[in-house]
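quick q for whoever's on today - can somebody do inverse folding on this one?? i tried earlier but teh output was garbage lol. tokens:
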């Protein structure tokens, strides 16, 4: 502690106590102090700045977030960080951290600590930090560390902790620049590891992988990756399992399925993988907050003949859809529900009969009197006409 105290940069010391600034605040004179120290000074009746001795025309204090951030970096990075030149020290620090991650001699613990520091620096979205991460190609390195390793890592708790943190960093770095490095996941062995992690990983790992899928669907440059993932029957099966059996991750799994569903070429694979039944189970549970998005997935998939057959054969599927037609607390589902009912009722007599028995006519009339969109009302009228005929 004494050694650490002696190495505190002058910029990070409170002028009153000479200790490390814990909560830096600035006076109207531009001088910065630790909040507790300057508040005691002012409470004692002093109306001057302790350093300049200027009279304070405004006694208010303002948090110094920039200095607080620099101190946090110094605490995390230690001697690697130079407060006099934070930009130079940032790129030097990142280069050093990258060498640690790349080195075959570095222990897993050292690499884990390096990742912690990377996570801290990636949390700062200043243009310089962004440039450093891009120049040093951190995203390809982290993807290799997570998906390019032996499958035995999955069974090790320490390796799983490392993978969790690496995936957190990947999520942050994806936001900083090009998504093209994600295409590395298409490689056979990396794809195998991706699927294995989705099957056996922790909830945190599964959540991160779902977000990687979302990212892959957001750019034309990673469309092939999205297609590869969407056509993996094992991945689709695992996503459906998570949607129905894991409340902690189900919301992110719904988003991942929606991302895969954005590609027409993936939809047949999603249907074969049980997406229709999985989504209907999710919707019928009535305790989910992603129901509107889930309904939009059904709306997209039901354009396939195979999906229509599966949907009408699912127990009480029409009643589930009818329940979505008009709900005061969740009107976002109405248009999707009406669209899906239009599709299946137009082709299956028993679907029309079940819809009428489930009270769809009353719900449609209520919907027409509500504040829903004109598009929804137009589709509701079409469905009413179909059912009455």
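ok took a stab at it. sequence:
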């Amino acid at each position: 502690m004494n050694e650490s105290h002696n190495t505190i940069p002058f910029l990070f010391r409170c002028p009153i106590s000479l200790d490390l600034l814990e909560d830096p605040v600035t006076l109207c004179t531009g001088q910065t102090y630790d909040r507790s120290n300057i508040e005691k000074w002012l409470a004692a009746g002093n109306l001057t700045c302790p350093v300049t001795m200027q009279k304070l025309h405004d006694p208010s204090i303002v948090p110094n977030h920039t200095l607080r951030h620099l101190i946090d970096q110094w605490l995390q990075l230690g001697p690697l960080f130079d407060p006099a030149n934070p930009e130079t020290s940032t790129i030097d620090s990142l280069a050093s951290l990258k060498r640690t991650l790349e080195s075959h001699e570095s222990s897993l613990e050292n690499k884990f600590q390096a990742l912690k520091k990377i996570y801290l620096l990636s949390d700062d979205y200043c243009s310089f930090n962004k440039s450093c991460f891009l120049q040093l190609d951190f995203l390809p390195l982290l993807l290799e560390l997570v998906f390019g390793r032996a499958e035995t890592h999955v069974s090790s708790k320490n390796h799983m902790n490392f993978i969790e943190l690496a995936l957190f960093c990947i999520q942050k770095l994806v936001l900083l620049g090009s998504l093209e490095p994600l295409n590395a996941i298409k490689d056979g062995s990396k794809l195998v590891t991706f699927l294995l992690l989705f099957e056996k990983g922790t909830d945190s790992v599964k959540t991160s992988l779902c977000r990687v899928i979302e990212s892959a669907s957001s750019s034309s440059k990673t469309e092939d990756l999205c297609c590869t993932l969407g056509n993996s029957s094992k991945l689709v099966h695992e996503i459906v399992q998570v949607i129905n059996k894991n409340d902690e991750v189900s919301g992110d799994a719904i988003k991942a399925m929606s991302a895969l569903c954005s590609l027409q070429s993936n939809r047949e694979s999603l249907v074969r993988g049980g997406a229709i039944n999985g989504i209907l189970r999710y919707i019928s549970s009535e305790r989910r907050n992603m129901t509107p998005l889930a309904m939009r997935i059904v709306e997209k998939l039901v354009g396939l003949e195979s999906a229509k057959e599966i949907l009408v054969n699912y127990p009480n599927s029409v009643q589930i859809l009818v329940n979505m037609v008009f709900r005061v607390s969740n009107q976002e589902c109405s248009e999707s529900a009406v669209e899906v009912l239009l599709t299946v009722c137009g082709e299956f007599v028993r679907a029309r009969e079940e819809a009428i028995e489930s009270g769809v006519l009353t719900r449609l009339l209520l919907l027409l009197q509500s504040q829903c969109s004109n598009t929804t009302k137009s589709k509701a009228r079409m469905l009413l006409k179909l059912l009455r005929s």
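fwiw Strands lie at 24-26, 32-34, 62-63. also The chain is about 65% helix and 0% strand. so keep that in mind when u check it
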